[in-house]
Amino acid sequence: xxxxxxxxxxxxxxxxxxxxxxxxxxxxxxxxxxxxxxxxxxxxxxxxxxxxxxxxxxxxxxxxxxxxxxxxxxxxxxxxxxxxxxxxxxxxxxxxxxxxxxxxxxxxxxxxxxxxxxxxxxxxxxxxxxxxxxxxxxxxxxxxxxxxxxxxxxxxxxxxxxxxxxxxxxxxxxxxxxxxxxxxxxxxxxxxxxxxxxxxxxxxxxxxxxxxxxxxxxxxxxxxxxxxxxxxxxxxxxxxxxxxxxxxxxxxxxxxxxxxxxxxxxxxx
Length: 269
Known about the structure:
With 269 residues, the protein is mainly α. The protein contains nine helices and no strands. The radius of gyration is 23 Å and the shape is globular.
């Protein structure tokens, strides 16, 4: 029998049964995930924070991410300027490149790409660290000593990501603007005075606030998801690896989905 013949995959009844079992398993997992992260988020709000550990996590989230944010935002600004320059040249509208680059960076590309990159990096690190503590029973030891693992482990990380993401997003916007200027100066022949004055005409304070406020939510989601997957890690080092991968996937999906609804909400408001 050829490896491509239908018989290799079982009878139609077996295929259908496996299909619906897979849907049921994934639906059950999503329900557990959203329910668990929601409960953890509520519990996080109820716990006092530890200033010293929060400051340490803020350093790890913010300062340790400056390089990757700077490199990414520089080339994002350059790519935006390059694409808009060649695209608008067909209509003789190169003068609008600076305005589009500014709005694209401040409202969407800066906040979203920064959150995706930092979220994948920081969220995976949180899951790996807390997951390693979970599989080695260190979290059980914290509970045995009468301490609360949510207060000691989750609250500082959630606060750090929530507070630092807007700062990193604004930093990414600033660097990306200069990346776009480099392309406009070399490929479009646009002077610095016209570039920055044109951008100032189109980018207003509410645009910057729009992007920064979204990253507050993104940062909160990153901290909660990374901590939740770390706390529920089982199965030794293999389980840590699976939880880390899952965190990157869920953080990315959550940021992209919530970006749409937050943007819609802000436009309505």
